[in-house]
Amino acid sequence: MTRVIIAEHAGACYGVERALSMALKAAQEARQPVHTLGPLIHNPLVVADLEQRGVSPAATPDDAGTGTLVVRAHGVTPQVSAHARELGLDVIDATCPYVKRVHHAAEKLAREGYQVLVIGESGHPEVQGIMGHAGENALVVSSEEEIDALALAKRVGIVVQTTQTIELLRRIVARLLGRVEELRVVNTICEATSERQNAARDAAREADCMIVVGGRESGNTQRLAQICHEMCAKTHHIEDANEIDPTWLAGAETIGITAGASTPAEHIERVRTRIREIVSA
C-alpha cells in the first residue's frame, strides 16, 4: 500500500497567516476599496480568492487610487509607504515581523558605517524593500561567485533575505573573509524557513516521489523544490492539486508532500486527497 507523508513543517507561516488575516479584516470592515500593494503573497490561488472577497492587487499606490492599501508580507521601501500616505490612502502594514527585523538590522548597520550587503534575489519584492533600508552603498548578492566582481568597502555588514539558506550564507561569508577588513553578519534567515527546509529534506529522503506545493513565483517554495530534488529525483513543484500527473506516482511506495510558506493548509490537504484518489484508482 502506498504511503503518503507530509513534511513535519510545511505550509503557511506566521507572517503569511498574519497578512491574510489583516487583509480579510480590512475587507470586512472597510467601506471603501481595499487593495494590496502587489500580490499580498506569492500564491496565485490565494490572490484570486482575495479578489473574490473584495481585495485586489494594485501595482503602485497611484494605481490604488483611494481607499485602503495593505502593504504585503514582503514589505516595501520607506519611500513607497510615505508616498501612499501622501496620496491619502489608509495604509495597513502587513509586512512580516521577520522581514521587519531585516529592515531594522540593515538600518542599524548602515548607521554604524557598514556597507550593507543583502544576500538574496535581486528584484525580489522582499529584497527591494530591504534595500530601501540599507543605505546608498548597499549591494545585493545571490551567490559566492558574484563577490569577486563587487566594489566592497573595508567594513561590510551582511543581512539575509528571510527565505535564503544557511548554506548560501556560509559560502558567501567564507568568500568575503579575504576581501574585507571587517565583516559583521546578522543572520536574518527566518526560523520558519529553516524548519521547512530541514523538514522537506527529511521527507524527501524517505520518498520515491516528492510533491512541492506553492506558487511558482515563490522563492521559498522554489528552494524547497531544489532541496527536495537533491534528495529525490522525482520531485514536482505544483500550484494546485489538479496539476498532479498520475504517471508521477506510478510505482512509488512512499509519496512525500511539502509546501511553501505561502501555501494554506487546505491546499496541502487537497493535494493529499488527490494523491490518495490516484493511487486508489
Protein model, in words:
This protein has eleven helices and twelve strands. The protein has a four-stranded parallel β-sheet, with helices on both faces. Strands 3-2-4-5 form a four-stranded parallel β-sheet. A four-stranded parallel β-sheet has the order 7-6-8-9, with helices on both faces. The radius of gyration is 20 Å and the shape is flat. The two termini are 12 Å apart. The model has no long low-confidence stretch (mean pLDDT 94).
Biggest β-sheet: strands ordered side by side in the sheet? 1-12-10-11
- Count of beta strands: 12
Largest sheet: 4 strands, parallel
The radius of gyration is 20 Å
Residue runs with pLDDT of under 50 for 5 or more positions:
none
CATH topology of the largest domain: Cobalt-precorrin-4 Transmethylase, domain 1
Classify the helix fraction into a percent range.
Answer: 40-55%
Shape: flat
What structural category do the secondary elements indicate? alpha/beta
CATH architecture of the largest domain: 3-Layer(aba) Sandwich
Give the CATH superfamily of the largest domain. Answer: 4-hydroxy-3-methylbut-2-enyl diphosphate reductase, catalytic domain
Provide the β-strand percentage band.
15-25%
Q: How would you describe this structure in keywords?
A:
single chain, Cobalt-precorrin-4 Transmethylase, domain 1, alpha/beta, Rossmann fold, flat
